[in-house]
């Protein structure tokens, strides 16, 4: 798994490099951030020729290690202006692993405006004209791509909003069954891909034999121990049953469930959108519905789901906590069918549901529609489908929507809308939002399951620091964060699997160090891009407006927060 | 002139302070920036309760010193996030001087949404309900205000876009004849005024006797010498004849006239919009037209003008160089009648013509309308009048318009569109745009008339430094920058007039020091707000895309630029 494919879009030239022997442990986010930090001018125009878009597989890519095939995508973010890595499940990284590809780098800008597809097989890498895909929605495009390139491909692609360079656009990746619904949603990387004129990467691993495993026996043993551990783990069992939606009750009770544009932390209709309700609706409706679905080859947690309509026909897969809160409670919408419909429309347009939930809630605060108006929210999605100016505003994300509409309360850091945890009630996440190299992002340092009093300012910096290092470590390995619990008593497994696959001795310490170096490298990029310690803050209202359901403001001392990267 | 009026909008309480004796030289921009730096949290929500809007008169306010009655308005900018001061001519500062008022400070937010007017007379300062002015255009509002408060008032006010908190909104000030057309345009301070719910300050100096002049004889002598010097000054004579539009030929010849969204530096229709043409059209049409008009009491330069339509009826006053370029050449529009119409509509809506010219050109680059489509540009202004979503996008300024529409080339620094000098062809202004505490702004350090080879990178940092210090000094005194030439051989006059008026010995050195301290204070505010040296840059394309008409890129060495504030 040592191929690095570079696509120079100005000339159309494609060339390949081999990962140097001393860089064999640098994969996933470690690799996207290294390439971006080394090769992209931090102050560049985000849509200019010097920005790059990097797709990188993780260290377990191509194997069936549970939760081990996430795809990392990185560049300078059109949304935040910071360095960015966004990762997702699905089957793209698995096929990259089979093809022996560690990274694909899109460089430069095409000399003339056009749409292309990058088609990768065992033997060839080609740019294919794709103007007939212009403005085509994500699901229709995926079907057409399969007609054109075969059924067994993996796809990483953008929708119409990415082509329009709308900054809330993500990159959709196919799941095990070919649904283009595993999103690298955050940071507007879909807009960056659109600026490069690339509609899709298409990966065909037919006859590919990778990855070459250096110690099959060792891998088999550790992998099997990991799978057993996951299946025995009670907390992970709840993920299997309720998916991430199990979090609704947790945050609602903490007063941390974003409600009506972060004006409250509990939602009176929470029971209509929680994990129990989701499980009940999916199982009662049957049909295409599936409460427990694996997004990646080999995953035994299966926290994903397939949400059907009343007739049992699939609406969206998966329906997850962040979307349920941002497009649900945060918009005052307590109806899973409407949330599922909004989610599907985001997926089909190519949009991040978190920033779009933020945008709709901010538009509600501006009076465009009322809080709780689900039908109105669906009409807003139609505005984007029709590419109206209101649609353009919304698709540019929550911050720009708020700026254009003159809204004061915009729950965002560094241009990116917060995830579904009110930082006044889960203060460790407030620290993560403030300091993450990625802008407000829960996956950058998730503290909600960590042993800390979430309403207290005490210990939150240390908690966020640990979470940021551990989460970044998983991003660098290419593992799903949810599997972390299974390693609690077996941290050595993480390195042992690397050793087994790559033949290079790797310890947990090594992986932690790669994570820390990655964070510091990202932070240095941001510093050169103009960010400073004084940007590491929440919007003022979180310090001054009490969250009525947690009874708290954000009050973690700033001088402590400033030390978070002292490691 | 020692009254400072503070209006606490949450409670409606108004209280007064007296300028301390040791602060008597701190006026104009020195005072707005001092109050903002000391009292506003640099990271505050711009539309939140802790931002403040400060109106400050200069050191000569209330006298008839030529060019000496500019009004400074400051706060944390809704457009740039930096500290902001924007100043204008007109009669507002003169009436403040007559009323003995040095500053008016709007603080906090009203408890409920409403529109009010601050009415100031010799004896009273009152908040007056103004919901009947809601969404009323600027000129109609001014007429209604005169009906309500009398003919002789001075007004500082916002239009509909300021009420909507659109970030390209400025604050209009009445001129000598009561036209609300002298704009503190830049930085979105109109949106900040809108967030405070204040439609207008109304100043009535009936029976006011200020300012108390400490040495009438001395003032009379220096003032009279200054007026003579101005009248004998050949360069200033050209201002009198051609207004600022005389600059069109200068920049067109330098390749520095922004053309079609800063893609060129010369415009093939320049002769249709230059100073000769403007003078010719105004004089030939007659009627209301006036090629040489004074915007402030006492001004003998009279660079302003009144532009009539073909029937001789006034369209706009004044029509100035920055607007002629940004809404003309930069949009490919070579027609003074259309530019005048666009200018009037901006004035009536409450918008900065520079940022709006930038926004229209960026929209043209996005394909909303074609470059050169003057009728289309007028329709875009109608979109704002009708408050459509396209109108909202445009009124939020050039940068946000570009972001929402997915445009790569946005000619701005720190969120603010550049003025009418291509920084590749007038490189001193490139240094000013990059480093100004206010974002891209020509008045922050105008180098075009300074003795330097504009196409060369040599000496530009020193040139911009001198210009920034001198321009800021005039902003602190409250004098028009154009009068600077008249002080070339008589710098001592600037301080002598202060001594004559205030009885406090003041030298040119003192004024230069106040300027330098103000710049450093502003820079420190910005640093606390999250800005760093790495933000002191032009957009990437100015370094990489050659301006075909100057044959240059921007290439002033960054290490030199970083030393500009070492004084």
Briefly, what is this?
By secondary structure, chain A is α+β, with helices and mostly antiparallel strands. In chain A, 38% of the residues lie in helices and 14% in strands. Chain A has a domain at 3-203: Aldehyde Ferredoxin Oxidoreductase,  A, domain 1 (4-Layer Sandwich), CATH 3.60.9.
Query: Could you please say which CATH topology of the domain at 3-203 in chain A applies here?
Result: Aldehyde Ferredoxin Oxidoreductase,  A, domain 1
Overall average residue pLDDT of chain A:
96
Structural class of chain A: alpha+beta
Instruction: Report the principal-axis shape of chain A.
Output: globular
Oligomer: homodimer
- Please work out how many helical segments of chain A DSSP would assign: 21
Strand content of chain A: 5-15%
- Tell me the major beta sheet of chain A: 6 strands, mixed
Please tally the β strands of chain A and state the result.
Answer: 17
CATH superfamily of the domain at 3-203 in chain A: Aldehyde ferredoxin oxidoreductase, N-terminal domain
Strand order of the largest sheet of chain A: 2-1-6-3-4-5
Most extensive interface between two protein chains, with residue counts:
A-B, 42 and 43 residues
What does this structure look like?
2 copies of one chain form a homodimer. With 567 residues, chain A is an alpha+beta fold. Chain A is built from 21 helices and 17 strands. Chain A has a 6-stranded mixed beta sheet with strand order 2-1-6-3-4-5, sandwiched between helices. The radius of gyration of chain A is 22 Å and the shape is globular. The A-B interface holds A 41-45, 47-50, 164-167, 191, 194-195, 388-390, 392-393, 396, 400, 403-406, 408-409, 527-532, 534-535, 537, 539-541, 544 and B 41-45, 47-50, 164-167, 191, 194-195, 388-390, 392-393, 396, 400, 403-409, 527-532, 534-535, 537, 539-541, 544.
């Amino acid at each position: 798994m040592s191929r690095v494919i570079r696509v120079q879009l100005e000339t159309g030239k494609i060339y390949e490099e081999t990962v140097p022997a001393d860089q064999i442990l640098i994969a996933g986010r470690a690799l996207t951030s290294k390439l971006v930090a080394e090769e992209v001018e931090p102050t560049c125009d985000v849509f200019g020729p010097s920005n790059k878009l990097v797709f990188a597989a993780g260290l377990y890519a191509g194997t069936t290690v549970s939760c081990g095939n996430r795809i990392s995508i990185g560049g300078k973010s059109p949304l935040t202006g910071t360095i960015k890595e966004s990762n997702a499940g699905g089957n793209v990284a698995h096929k990259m692993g089979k093809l022996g590809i560690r990274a694909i780098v899109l460089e430069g800008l095409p000399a003339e405006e056009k749409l292309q597809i990058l088609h990768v097989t065992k033997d060839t890498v080609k740019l294919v004209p794709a103007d007939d895909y212009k403005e085509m929605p994500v699901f229709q495009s995926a079907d057409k791509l399969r007609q054109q390139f075969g059924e067994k491909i993996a796809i990483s692609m953008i929708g119409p909003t990415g082509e329009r360079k709308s900054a809330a656009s993500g990159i959709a990746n196919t799941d095990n069954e070919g649904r283009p619904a595993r999103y690298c949603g955050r940071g507007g990387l879909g807009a960056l891909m659109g600026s490069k004129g690339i509609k899709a990467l298409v990966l065909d691993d037919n006859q590919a034999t990778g990855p070459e495993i250096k110690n099959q026996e060792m891998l088999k043993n550790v992998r099997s121990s990991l799978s057993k551990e996951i299946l025995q783990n009670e907390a992970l069992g709840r993920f299997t049953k309720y998916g991430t939606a199990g979090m609704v009750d947790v945050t609602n009770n903490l007063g941390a469930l974003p409600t009506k544009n972060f004006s409250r932390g509990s939602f009176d209709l929470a029971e209509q959108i929680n994990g129990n309700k989701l499980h009940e609706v999916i199982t009662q409706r049957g049909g295409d519905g599936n409460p427990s679905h694996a997004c990646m080859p080999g995953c035994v947690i299966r926290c994903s789901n397939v949400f059907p309509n009343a007739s049992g026909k699939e609406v969206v897969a998966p329906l997850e906590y962040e979307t349920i809160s941002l497009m649900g409670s945060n918009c005052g919408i307590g109806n899973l069918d409407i949330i599922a419909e909004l989610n599907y429309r985001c997926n089909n347009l190519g949009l991040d549901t978190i920033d779009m939930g933020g945008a709709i809630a901010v538009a509600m605060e501006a009076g465009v529609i009322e809080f709780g108006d689900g039908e109105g929210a669906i009409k807003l999605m139609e505005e984007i489908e029709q590419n109206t100016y209101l649609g353009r505003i919304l698709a540019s994300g929550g911050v720009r929507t708020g700026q254009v509409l003159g809204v004061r309360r915009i729950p965002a850091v560094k241009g990116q809308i917060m995830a579904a945890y009110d930082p006044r009630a889960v203060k460790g996440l407030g620290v993560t939002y403030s300091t993450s190299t990625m802008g407000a992002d829960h996956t950058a340092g998730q503290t909600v399951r960590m042993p800390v009093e979430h309403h207290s300012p005490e210990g939150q910096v240390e908690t966020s620091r640990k979470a940021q290092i551990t989460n970044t470590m998983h991003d660098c390995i290419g593992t799903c964060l949810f599997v972390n619990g299974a390693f609690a008593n077996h941290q050595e497994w993480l390195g042992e699997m690397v050793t087994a696959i790559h033949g290079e001795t790797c310890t947990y310490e090594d992986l932690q160090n790669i994570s820390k170096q990655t964070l510091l490298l990202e932070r240095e990029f941001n510093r050169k891009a103009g960010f400073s310690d004084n940007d590491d803050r929440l919007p003022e209202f979180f310090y001054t407006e009490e969250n009525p359901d947690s009874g708290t403001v954000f009050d973690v001392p700033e001088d402590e927060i400033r030390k978070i990267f002292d490691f």
